[in-house]
Description:
It is a single chain. 32% of the residues lie in helices and 20% in strands. The radius of gyration is 24 Å and the shape is elongated. It has two domains: 180 residues, Rossmann fold, CATH 3.40.50; 188 residues, Nucleotidyltransferase, domain 5, CATH 3.30.420.280. By secondary structure, the chain is of the alpha/beta class.
Amino acid sequence: MPVFKRFGRKAYDFIKRHPSQDKKYTLLEGSVRSSKTFAVDAKLIIHLCAYRVDGKRVILGNTKQSVYKNILLDVFSVVGKENYTYNRSSGELWLFGVRWFVIGARDEASYKQILGMTVGIAIIDEWTLVPESFSKQLFMRMSPPGARLYATTNPGTPQHYLFTDVIHEANFAPDLEVIHFTLDDNPNIEPEIKAQIVASQKGVYFQRYILGLWVVAEGAIYKDCWSDELLYNDSTRPVGLYGQGGYVGHVIAIDYGTHNPCVFEEFIDDGVRVWNDREYYWDSVKEMRQKTDSEYADDLEYFIAGSRIRGRKNVKIVIDPSAASFKLELTKRGYNVVDADNEVLDGIHRVSQVMALGLLRVHEGCSNERRECAIYSWDPKAAEKGEETPLKTNDHSQDAKRYAVMDLFPEWRLLEKVA
């Protein structure tokens, strides 16, 4: 049966301490891959099922799926199938014979899931992603003597309610312990992987996810990871990229628009890097003519026919999930159409990582991609409210690129050694 790996000193001291000795609220915050979640997993297995406290036990995060991926999979691999049962639909978990409830707290209305509930133990995955209304409701629900909350998070903006109204709120100070983690607190990361993680974070992401600082994301989104070194042309494109053995994936990402521009971008994956080779960009406002789904589908067929990739008929179409009518038109024409992962902030971070590592190259002829990438910016008014949202201008090529990157670069791929 799988067992836990080594613990760093901070994680070990946190894990071995009995919950009765903890403060009511314990937050493990800091850099990525620093063993924060790993430590909470161990605390759950070793202490929290046996800890006697009134009230229900909940594990919550942005979604049930994110809790399953970030926490439960590792817990299940350690305890073995005979020690748990989990209903992924209802979120009911039995662990060592103790009942837990897994809850997704995705939006401001999510707090209704715990109305009327008395909570004895709460575990929060990525607290910055939990709406303020849910946290406030949870605090009111944790009334039993000895109630405990354990949370993990990477830092966010310093205007976030967690930073202003919890970490730096005097009323919380007697009941709150904040444990700051860095990469050096995880003894299980090999030096090469650690170097790769550090190299993948630039600008605001380096400050947050490596240094563990709460800083504002402002200005141009990709200013710290984009450079002209990522450009290529017909003479610098890898020899044989288009032929058999030259590529392992072929994707066209689509950001569909009627009043807004409609964008197709072609991406060729050579197994290490992805090459953004061509683009289609139709701005109905500028052109003073709006196209139908059928006309856009005709344009896509023409665009695909212009590809120099062999086997181009097998291309995967990755498209905005909300483009229902256009997806139907493409499906009727026999295309392999899949919904894009449209988690905006996760996607922006992934794109910045990929560009920082030099794993995404852009053909110099993709003029709209280059133009938008330089000016795609954070919304300063949203930042004042502790929210991170890109401005909804000059984002159409950027959305298409984000769809392609999320499809072609799962998280594990970023940890592979780059040739």
